[in-house]
Specification:
210 residues; alpha+beta; 2 domains; three-stranded antiparallel β-sheet; two-stranded antiparallel ribbon; 7 strands
Length: 210
């Protein structure tokens, strides 16, 4: 299965960087900048943006890092953002250029850290073994393991359906995102499911709606 949205890499050597023991908001700003940096050449607000660059504002970063406590929205202060920028520049992780419309952030050595070929294998022998064709025994073991995992998944669903006094909580705990969406669609079209009615459960599973 292919995942949408691409990916970015974060080197473990950050554990040895100057920001690792800095306040959390500094590390969060670094992650946000890394996630939102351009991976191709483009434009933003009329500004030419190269790979490894990002045109933004401190307010946009604050908004991107906001969180909720109940219904109350929380966010870092603008002073937090300024201190984070200062710390990242001091650590030679970014450079910045201000304009009247925002801030152009350049990630230092972006191409080095975002190139998979620049990373050592964690275990050469494991990598070599993974490239070899599996033996008949390995294939059989894999099939048995898959069958067991499938049975376990079905068992978990049964527990979710019948073993809980609170179905709503059980649904959130046990169903995958796609299953939740299918269930929501079914309930919108047919009304709420009565999970105490085993015939309705059988009908629903037979139709493969979840």
């Amino acid at each position: 299965m292919l995942l949408r949205g691409g990916y970015y890499m974060k080197a473990r050597c950050i554990m040895e960087s100057d920001i690792i023991n800095q306040p959390p908001h500094i590390r969060e700003v670094w992650d946000w900048v890394l996630m939102n940096a351009n991976y191709t050449v483009g434009k933003s607000s009329g500004v030419a943006i190269n790979r490894g660059q990002l045109f933004t504002t401190l307010d946009k970063i604050r908004e991107g890092l906001s969180w909720y406590v109940g219904y109350r929205k929380e966010s870092y202060t603008k002073d937090h953002m300024k201190k984070a920028m200062k710390a990242l520049k001091k650590a030679a992780m970014i450079t910045t250029n201000k304009s009247t419309r925002g801030l152009l952030i350049t990630i230092c050595n972006y191409d080095i850290y975002q190139n998979p070929s620049n990373y050592d294998s964690t275990n050469e022998s494991t990598s070599e073994g993974a490239r070899k064709a599996p033996s008949k025994h390995q294939s059989s073991t894999t099939i048995n393991k898959n069958d067991k995992n499938l049975k376990n998944k079905e068992k978990i669903k049964e527990i979710a359906f019948f073993g809980s006094l609170n179905w709503k909580r059980s649904k959130e705990r046990f169903l995958t995102i796609s299953e939740k969406k299918s269930l929501q669609t079914y309930e919108e079209e047919n009304g709420a499911v009565n999970w105490n009615n085993i015939e309705e459960y059988k009908k629903l599973t037979r139709e493969k709606t979840i």
